[in-house]
């Protein structure tokens, strides 16, 4: 009997631990094929330093709490394996696998993590090593190809939509003209910013303008659009991706950087939201504010999508089942069978085709000269934000799974 | 039979509409004493422009949705009545009240709104006008005197504590030293920042340092405290009030303003969080990030405290009952009868004693040379964040009460 090891890598999401839960539970369930379920601490990097834990250390409450604990329970890393498969790190890693009798390795992560899965599975194949290596996707950015969507996106999208709704209510209390610019994560792909359209409850409701990095941003057109919107509405909410850029490819946030230095003489870095706030104040003279939806976008437990959390766990479990049945070098994918009713199945894709690619929002889902989002996106995204998992609560706050300090 | 009018004023909170609900429901319930329940649109200012609505226009779903809708359903204003009670605005206002046969006026708001209640009730008394005028408190800042706490604080405190928990999970995934500085609302009173202590789940858990405006902030001591914390912990969360200042009274955010200008030549305004981020980067050379908990602090429906929402409605209803029984010139207050079990009763206080005063966090609740919060605060605040109201949901998002555009 072989052992299983699982690791987490890259930025955290609200449901990456839900995928971890899926892997562990299915690992435990398959006790005829799998003896021990181990976890790498801080991913491949920590594992190379000899850091791992046996998952049987988790009591049942902690294991169940994983389903709704944001972050990365096992700790994460940003570690890129060398492109040269002859590098000494590969035999070292597989020797460690052999010492621990590892037959299955699962890596939960985004693009870079799939690169790791690709390299390790190719190395194993080239050296006839029977360790089955699988990728479990996660990223709030929803930018992995060959999958309908990624675990983590639904919860982040729900956070964005709900927050934009709330900020819209907050911004509309006074009877004076105002602009609120909400900056949303997404450097190259605008999926999360597009989700702000879900906040719109009626015609002409906020957000009135939505800008993604998939379309060029023009400052003058933006100001003209605001003036147009003011004709029918006093309090305007504008949603922008952090990565919006003009037609020459210059990021809007770069325009801000040209000016100031901080109190320590370093170049002052601000986001595009802050820059646009200053632009609007300077040119339109109205009350203006920018809000940066910060890390809570990717770590909010209270705005988790239950659909997302369940699918994340399902992806983990499906990876284990597939590996046991002989698969390796694959990433678990989501295949949508239907929108209404929403039906999703897990599939498998060759991880080599996925890593280092990027899926952006289709241009036909961006409308009105790049200022709005089409119904097709709404139909796509709405099923992904449904339901709210029940969080274990204590003293008015959620109870999370915390890893005990290592000895 | 007389009519009732209610208005909202000042910044929005998560539960100001819950107080509005309380006033309207109790107004409807007392149909033997009260004929019509009206609402001022955009407070006193809108009312002076002839803008109001009859609350019977609200269908039952909308009325019930008010209980969990953040913002200010009736719209708000920032309008200070003149100190001179001989000003022409007073007879104008009371003439409008007379035309509408108003016998009861309720103003839901903070310090400035209580100033309005004080002036109008003094004018009415001086001129023997039988309009009963009552203040219903609301402010996330919790800075009104003569009340145990204010509606709005519990929900904002819950948002702060939950967000700090989540950011702590997010910040702890990598195995490298990092500092995350969370800037929390509160210019003069540190109540909300103090609530970040509720995020701490075990000894040495984050946040490791908490700074309120009630204590002087020293930059060198802060850096030394961080170095000390790094001895036992890699990922440090620090919570600061936006209004922290040094011993000379200089706001920490002012240190940032001295340096940069924005791309339009205007002085660059950043918060103290951003300044401290740059300070830590410059001096300690570790990974550092600042997060500004933005307007969501005061408008999050998903992190409403049920206790807060219920108490807010109770305050509104109690105000109506009291006014009908003859009270005027009072603010509804909260009187805590016991911590464990938590028992709270509504009371009444002379609004003239309350307006233009400010309640700060008692110095004995600030410990360890101004870097931490005492157990007494935890005992005080914990009952206020309990419970989560059930939000009406549709398509994965909360359903809110929206006011129809005026004709």
Pair with the biggest interface? A-B, 76 and 75 residues
Q: How many distinct domains of chain A?
A: 2
Q: Tell me the β content of chain A.
A: 15-25%
Q: What fold name goes in the CATH topology slot of the largest domain in chain A?
A: Rossmann fold
Largest sheet of chain A: 7 strands, mixed
Number of strands of chain A: 15
Task: Provide the succession of SSEs of chain A.
Answer: EHEHEHHEHEHEHEHEHHEHHEEHEEHEE
Main location (chains A, B): cytoplasm
Catalytic activity (chains A, B): beta-D-fructose 6-phosphate + diphosphate = beta-D-fructose 1,6-bisphosphate + phosphate + H(+)
Subunit structure (chains A, B): Homodimer.
Protein name (chains A, B): Pyrophosphate--fructose 6-phosphate 1-phosphotransferase
Keywords:
homodimer, 407 residues, alpha/beta, Rossmann fold, 2 domains, 7-stranded mixed β-sheet, 4-stranded parallel β-sheet, 14 helices, 35% helix, PPi-PFK (chains A, B)
